[in-house]
Amino acid sequence: MKDFWKKQLEKNEKLVFLAPMDGYGDSAYRQAMKRISPHIFCISEFYSADGLVHSKFLADSVLPHNKIEDPLIIQIFGKDPEMFAKAAKIIESEKYNIAGIDVNMGCPAKKVVRSGHGSSLLINEQTAFEIIKKLNEATKLPISVKTRLSFDGNQNLINFVKGLESAGASLVTIHGRTAKQAYTGKADFTDIYELKKNVSIPVICNGDILNYSDGMQKVKNLDGIMLGRASFGNPWCFIGEKQINDEEFLKKSPIKKQNFINGVYHPSLGEILDAMQFHAEKLVETKGEKKGSLEIRKHLVQYLKNFPGVKDYRKRLVTTESLENSLNIINEIRKNFEDFLEKRPSLGEIEKE
Questions:
Q1: What is the pTM for the complete model shown?
Q2: Own/partner pairs for 334-338, CB < 8 Å, 24+ apart?
Q3: Tens of pLDDT along 80-94?
Q4: Cα separation of the two ends of the chain
Q5: What is the C-alpha separation between 351 and 353, in angstroms, rounded?
Q6: Domains, the chain, ranges and CATH?
Q7: 69 and 34 in contact (C-beta within 8 Å)?
Q8: Cα 325 from chain centroid?
Q9: pLDDT tens track for 101-156
Q10: Distance (Å, rounded) from C-alpha 46 to C-alpha 92?
Q11: Which of 76, 195, 236, 270 is the 20 to 30 Å CA partner of 144?
């Protein structure tokens, strides 16, 4: 199992990942993405290693998942190597069927950094290496790391990743900004391309990738791409020439060849509404009516753009309080635009009222 990522690269020329996104990347979100893009690898929201060790409730809440999400990678954070080892034992339990563990060494949030977690490990290198060493000894699962170019520009990325590799990391994802930059400025992959020349493990790039086609232009000598914010309301962002021309892939995904134009997939209104309904139903199914209905608000409004009356529908969706209410609005759009369900909003094809 330690060679999991190298085996995946033998099957896929480049790997494609859904980024771990706190507050977004839950089971329902991952299912919504993989329904359209079954080729992607999903990394969960980040969970505290300490929390998983001390709370069986947390483990039983976040580790079970739907088969469609496989192979699922669980991301954890913390600063105590021993806690990471204990958390790994829980995560690798057969009942959860988790494919790998990813360690968060890149989160730039001040609260996380002040606690000695996330991107602060770019400064506390020896702790970072010890965490990977302890994890590697504790579990058969492959260990990967998500990190950044540096903390503030004063750390050496190549030396850091070499240390992670020596400790047992089998894949690393680099966000093309420093922790100090957070999400300001533009992602720069120059140092990531150079890093790849100096390590033997797979290297994935992340940051400001708009879609699969954009990622394939940027990936160069790297082993794959990771998309995060680009996927908000857009599970089609992972679709490129490779997928659209793969007959086996088209049997697994509901995408339509004619909607892929100049490297970008433009879903029809009907496809968008189907995706919204699926996401809403899965969120209530996994989190319950009350919590699921409140959380779906921020997701549903991301899907709706570029057609008449969209502001009114978005306003209503952002205040929805039940699955029934959400589905009623979705069905109302279906009915009011029944002659336009095959039209593609992003291409401006829906006529104005």
A1: 0.96
A2: 334/270, 334/273, 336/309, 337/269, 337/307
A3: 999 999 999 999 999
A4: 57
A5: 6
A6: 4-244 (3.20.20.70), 269-347 (1.10.1200)
A7: yes
A8: 28
A9: 999 999 999 999 999 999 999 999 999 999 999 999 999 999 999 999 999 999 99
A10: 16
A11: 236
- Catalytic (active-site) positions: 107
Let me know: does 269 contact 341? Beta carbons within 8 Å: yes
Task: Express each pLDDT in 190-212 by its tens digit.
Answer: 999 999 999 999 999 999 999 99
From 110, 108, 121, 1, select the one nearest 49 (Cα to Cα).
121
What are 172's two structure tokens?
């690393």
